[in-house]
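Journal club side-thread
Mid-discussion, someone asked how the predicted structure for our own chain would compare to the paper's figures. Pasting it here so we can look after the session.
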Amino acid sequence: MFLKFTKEQRIGFFLLFAIIIALQLIYFFADFSSVSQNDSDKQQWLALQTKVDSLKLLKSNEKQTIYLFNPNFISDYKGYKLGMSVEEIDRLLAFRKQNKFVNSAKEFQAVTKVSDSLLNAIAPFFKFPDWVNHRRGDNEYENFSNKTFVKKEKIVIIDINQATQEDLIKINGIGEAISLRILTQKEKLGVFVSMEQMKEVWGLSPEVILSLNKHFAITKLPDLNKIDINNASLKELSMFFYFKNNLARQIVKYRSMNGDFKNIEDLIKINDFPVDKAKYISLYLSF
């Protein structure tokens, strides 16, 4: 018995077979590698993005490291990073422009007016010079000492022109090298006429000079072979410690054009004369 299909059914069967054949052809001849490649690239980018996100999370959780610093030298940017306001930073900068220094966290707060909470947060990172810490330590020690039993050492003043290297080394902060510089300076000058001349010795800090002044002095002005400023030759003037060649030439020139110098006030009229040292330079001269 034969199956009998209508015309519409036969057309339907034909279209179905055509679709099946077309799908088979697409399967065998179409290239799906680009799709798989795109999927692979997408997976790599997703993995990379996950790694980036994890690094960002670690960075956000990372605490900022603060190193020890001297609060006297806080810049605008440093102060901003520490949490200081513009006004607080400006107060510190104005204070420093006066050539002043804060030497403790308490002084820092008094100058800048920072809050107690901010001071407690940043003060542990303050680092002051060693001599400041030593001074503070000495003061703290004195507060707990019984001054009734403290015997003050009697200081014997020594004439700085009679001091030996052993005498100088006894001062805290003066070693063999600096003591030799002081003695060499004395040889160049002949003698010291003022303790102010200690400031001219390279390597002596203000604190050491202060200590020197407590133990040494000009007890008696020694006899000097004074320079006759109105008759000394150019060579003789150039050999004087405070008169370099150029200044010596100007002295001779001024003397020839204006006559004799009557006092130190006439000398300081010359260009480049060390006016700040005139008081004790005059002690080496005769008019």
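Post-session note: The chain has a mean pLDDT of 81.
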